[in-house]
């Protein structure tokens, strides 16, 4: 990728043009997908965009047709049955099994291949694999962003008393913790909504990677992504020693486990607010039907 190609791409409103490619494909796929859809299912769309900037003609002004020539777009549509929120059996079971990603600020196809070796360390009950920088600070999941609601252990250092903390709308001396973007996590859309919701309703937010060594302070936990929106966490497993991740299989790892008691009050409030936002900000199906 040459500097000239990059400069030419920057001169275009290329993000909106790529979005146009995706929307065109969704418009073509939607009628067929709706015929296959059942009442209890939702549609899950996955777009894979690839491109070759070498196809841009040097020293010529790039336009919309150039973007369509440079980028290829493949759309996958599947049926998805969402899990009912609030049932313990529908909670996530997590296991920390690998290091954080080198390129975490965007979704890219190579990540599917790169995370495959982690599967050998997946315990049978684990529904999602977590990543950590050091075996203590948890960054994110392979497919999700990770959050904990944590009791503050530094109220005196912060100059805040428990009485002051309990003046928040929900009267809990808890804060939401999730790893910062700068720490190497995907800036998920739902992650952003969760933070906005918490700030709006008075739940303190601290963008810091939750520390496993302080797990006794964790009261609730959940994961988010664009498909499941928000799912409460039932259990988290972490290797007793970070060096055990060189093991060949999950059976060779000695695990520590933390269990949560289902979705509790604050997670439920956040989930309800996220659903409200999704309904307000989502794109109606009719927008993709001609």
UniProtKB/TrEMBL annotation:
One of its GO terms (molecular function) is transaminase activity. It holds the Pfam family Aminotran_4. It comes from the Eukaryota. Coiled coil: none annotated. Keywords: Aminotransferase, Transferase. InterPro entries: Aminotrans_IV, Aminotransferase-like, BCAT-like_C. This is D-aminoacid aminotransferase-like PLP-dependent enzymes superfamily protein. It comes from Artemisia annua (Sweet wormwood). The lineage of its organism: Eukaryota, Viridiplantae, Streptophyta, Embryophyta, Tracheophyta.
């Amino acid at each position: 990728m040459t500097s000239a190609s990059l400069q030419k791409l920057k001169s275009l409103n290329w993000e909106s043009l790529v979005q146009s490619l995706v929307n065109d494909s969704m418009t073509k796929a939607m009628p067929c997908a709706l015929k296959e859809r059942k009442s209890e299912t939702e549609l899950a769309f996955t777009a894979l965009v690839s491109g070759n900037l070498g196809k841009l003609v040097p020293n010529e002004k790039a336009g919309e047709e150039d973007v369509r020539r440079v980028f290829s777009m493949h759309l996958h549509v599947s049926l998805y049955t969402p899990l009912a929120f609030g049932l313990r059996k529908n909670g996530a079971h997590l296991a920390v099994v690998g290091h954080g990603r080198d390129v975490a600020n965007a979704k890219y196809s190579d990540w599917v291949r790169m995370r495959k070796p982690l599967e050998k360390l997946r315990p049978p009950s684990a529904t999602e694999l977590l990543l950590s920088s050091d075996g203590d600070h948890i960054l994110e999941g392979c497919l999700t962003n990770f959050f904990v609601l944590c009791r503050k252990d530094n109220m005196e250092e912060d100059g805040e008393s428990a009485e002051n903390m309990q003046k928040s709308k929900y009267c809990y001396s808890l804060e939401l913790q999730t790893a910062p973007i700068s720490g190497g996590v995907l800036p998920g859309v739902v992650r952003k909504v969760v933070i906005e919701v918490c700030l709006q309703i008075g739940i303190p937010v601290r963008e810091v990677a939750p520390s496993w060594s302080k797990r006794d302070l964790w009261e609730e936990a959940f994961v988010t992504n664009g498909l499941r929106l928000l799912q409460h966490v039932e259990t988290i497993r972490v290797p007793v020693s970070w060096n055990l991740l060189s093991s060949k299989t999950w059976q060779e790892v000695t695990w520590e486990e933390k269990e949560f008691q289902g979705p509790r009050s604050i997670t439920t409030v956040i989930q309800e607010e996220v659903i409200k936002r999704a309904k307000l900000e989502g794109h109606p199906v009719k927008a993709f039907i001609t």
